[in-house]
């Protein structure tokens, strides 16, 4: 923005780097250019400052399609002033006393460009249906407005150059837009529901897989436990059989040992009995040839070993006479036998 300092009867102007100033004094151009600095007399001078940087002009207007539908078109036009002297001579860009430019020039440019955009867009939209306008209206209108504004003689003679046109949106009325969005929304909702159902199906399938894996694990564990129990039973059975077999072997060995012992004892007893019998037979053979008195004496001797102690013995005459008689008879018998 330019700066103007006022003094008595004279003022000083200091321009900006984006403003092209045109100083007219008595109808003649005294100063012009960007970034100017000069003294001037306010009473005899007219100052105009034209911006030389790129300008953005947003515009919004309505049009009717061939099927009588109202659409709103939002566009943005980029332009610049290539001939500031012509612009200053045809549009109001005069500076105020404080150095601020009036808004009349930009409003005039906005009106001119806006009307041109609206007239060309309305003519084009009137030949298309609503569906066509919504489908390809943005690209077609951008190309159409760029060509139309660039070729407009009024803008060229004024010193305005169109740098570009951007059509931002072509939208129908809100009710029509909601009606048009309904099928798409329903389709999207259907897709979302399908995605939810598929996700649920996948989750159910995964849960089923997990349940099957858990069940298979339980079955495998049960089978292993069954095999373990069967193996433990077989081991216990085998151990019992081994213990029984070992007991049987031990019992057989004990029985055999006892049988051998009994046989040996029986043989010993038999041998002892045979020896006793032989001894008795030999004794009986010896006793068979003895007389009665000798046998009686031997019997008394054998019996004396088992009799109790005798403290007093009474010998009667009858006993003594009988013993003496036997002694007397024994020598005689012996002599007779010798003869």
Layout of SSEs?
Blueprint: E1 3-7, E2 10-14, E3 19-25, E4 28-34, E5 37-40, E6 45-51, E7 55-64, E8 70-81, H1 84-90, H2 104-125, H3 130-150, H4 153-158, E9 160-172, H5 174-288, H6 292-304, H7 317-338
Antiparallel strand pairs: 1-2, 2-5, 3-4, 3-6, 7-8, 8-9
Helix pairs in contact: 2-3
Concise description?
With 339 residues, the chain is α+β, with helices and mostly antiparallel strands.
Q: Mind summarizing the main beta sheet?
A: 3 strands, antiparallel
How many helical elements?
7
Mean pLDDT: 82
| Distance between the amino and carboxyl termini | 200 Å
Q: What level of helicity do the residues show? A: 55-70%
Low-confidence stretches: 331-339
As a percent range, the share of strand residues is: 15-25%
String of helices and strands? EEEEEEEEHHHHEHHH
What global shape is seen? rod-shaped
Number of strands: 9
| Alpha carbon gyration radius | 77 Å
Based on secondary structure, the structural category is alpha+beta
Spatial strand sequence of the major β-sheet: 1-2-5
